[in-house]
Specification:
Blueprint lengths: L1 H4 L7 H5 L3 H11 L7 H11 L2 H10 L16 H11 L8 H8 L3 E2 L2 E2 L1 E2 L22 E2 L5 H10 L5 H12 L12 H10 L4 H11 L3 H4 L2 H16 L24 H8 L9 H13 L28 H15 L1
Antiparallel strand pairs: 1-2, 3-4
Helix pairs in contact: 3-4, 3-16, 5-6, 6-8, 8-9, 8-11, 11-13, 14-15, 14-16
C-alpha cells in the first residue's frame, strides 16, 4: 500500500471511508482488503443497498432495453446502469437484480448477449430514409456492447453456462489483431485501409479477460490490446475514437472510450506495465490530483446529476477511489 499512496499529495483513505456508501464499500473491499465477513464491510454493504440513489438505479435496470438505443454512448442505456451497480459492489441477489439478470439473459446470439435494435445499414442513394421502430423485437450482438453485459453479470457474481460460453466465444474472437470487428458500413472503409481492430472493442474484451485468471496474461488479451496500442501510435481518430480533450476526462460511468476507463482496465495486466500508453495514463492521473490527493470530475453525465461524480466544483470520492485503485493496480 505504501508505494501507491506515495504518489498522492496526501492520503485520502479516511476521507473515502467517511463518504458516500458506494465509495465507502469499495474502499474497504478494494483498497483496504476487508473480507466479506468483516463487520465494517457488512455494515458498509447494508448502507449501500439502502441508499436512495442505488435503489433508484436498480429499479431503472428492470426496464431492460425496452427500446433500441439510438446511440451507443447514451448513459441512459440500462446495461450501463447495471454495470455501474456491479462496480459499486452490488450482487445479483441484491435489490431484486436477479429480475434484471434474467431479462439480460433472454436474448443470446452465437453465445453472446444480445441488445435490442437493427444492425445499421448503409442508406441507399435516392431512397427515402425511414426511421426504425425502436420497440421492434429485433436483437443483435456487437463488440462494443455485448461484452458490457457479460462484464456486468460477472461482476454481479452470476456464474452459469451462459457466462462461460460468452467468455469462451469472446476468446475465440480475439485470435489476431483485427479481433472482433463490427464491420458496420461507417467504419469498414477505415478498417480495410488499416486492418486493425477497434480500440473500444479491445478494451471491453480486456475488461473480461482481466477477470479470468487463465486469460489475464494470455495471447487473447495481447491481441485485444493491439488496437489500443495502435491508436496511441496512430495519433489521430480511429473509428471515431479520438485522444483529444474529450478523451482525457475524469468521467464516470464508463460509458465510452476515455482515459480513466482505459487506465482502470489496462493497469490490471502485468504484461502492460511498461507500455508507453500506460505510463502516459498514470502520469496524467498523478498530475490531476489536488493538494489533498483528491480528484474532481472534469466531465459529467447529467443523467447522474445527483451523484458525487457529477459535480465538477468539488472533489469526488468515487473518482478519487477509482484513481487510487488505478495507482494501486499499477504500483501494487
Amino acid at each position: 500500500m505504501k508505494a501507491w499512496t506515495e504518489k498522492l499529495n496526501d492520503n485520502p483513505i479516511d476521507w473515502l471511508r467517511n463518504s458516500n456508501p458506494w465509495t465507502k464499500y469499495k474502499t474497504y473491499s478494494d483498497l483496504l482488503g476487508f473480507k466479506e465477513t468483516d463487520r465494517e464491510l457488512i455494515e458498509a454493504k447494508n448502507d449501500l443497498i439502502n441508499d436512495e440513489n442505488i435503489i433508484h438505479l436498480a429499479n431503472d435496470t428492470k426496464e431492460w432495453l425496452t427500446i433500441s438505443p439510438t446511440r451507443n454512448n447514451d448513459p441512459k442505456i440500462t446495461y450501463f446502469k447495471l454495470k455501474a451497480l456491479a462496480e459499486f459492489g452490488l450482487r445479483y441477489s441484491d435489490l431484486e437484480l436477479k429480475e434484471t439478470v434474467d431479462k439480460a439473459s433472454e436474448h443470446v446470439i452465437n453465445n453472446m448477449f444480445g441488445v435490442r435494435g437493427q444492425i445499421p445499414e448503409k442508406p441507399i442513394k435516392g431512397k427515402k430514409y425511414e426511421k426504425p421502430d425502436l420497440t421492434t423485437d429485433v436483437w443483435h450482438i456487437s463488440p462494443c456492447n455485448s461484452p458490457l453485459i457479460t462484464t456486468a453479470l460477472m461482476e454481479l457474481g452470476v456464474k452459469n453456462d451462459l457466462i462461460n460460453n460468452s467468455i469462451e466465444e469472446l476468446k475465440h474472437k480475439w485470435t489476431n489483431i483485427e479481433g472482433w470487428f463490427c464491420h458496420f458500413f461507417f467504419v469498414d472503409g477505415q478498417f480495410n485501409k488499416l486492418q486493425i481492430g477497434c480500440p473500444i472493442a479491445g478494451l471491453q474484451a480486456l475488461e473480461i479477460f482481466s477477470k479470468v485468471p487463465e486469460l489475464k496474461e494470455s495471447e487473447y488479451a495481447k491481441f485485444a490490446f493491439e488496437p489500443i496500442k495502435f491508436h496511441k501510435d496512430y495519433g489521430k481518430s480511429l473509428y471515431y475514437f479520438g485522444r483529444s480533450k474529450k478523451f482525457w476526462t475524469l468521467k464516470y460511468p464508463f460509458v465510452w472510450y476515455n482515459a480513466l476507463y482505459l487506465a482502470d482496465v489496462l493497469t490490471r495486466f502485468d504484461f502492460l506495465k511498461d507500455q508507453p500508453v500506460i505510463k502516459e495514463l498514470i502520469d496524467w492521473i498523478i498530475h490531476a490530483q489536488d493538494k489533498n490527493g483528491r480528484f474532481k470530475p472534469s466531465s459529467i453525465f447529467m443523467e447522474y446529476k445527483n451523484w458525487d461524480f457529477s459535480n465538477k466544483k468539488e472533489p469526488s470520492p468515487w473518482i478519487t477511489f477509482l484513481c487510487c485503485r488505478i495507482l494501486k493496480q499499477y504500483f501494487g
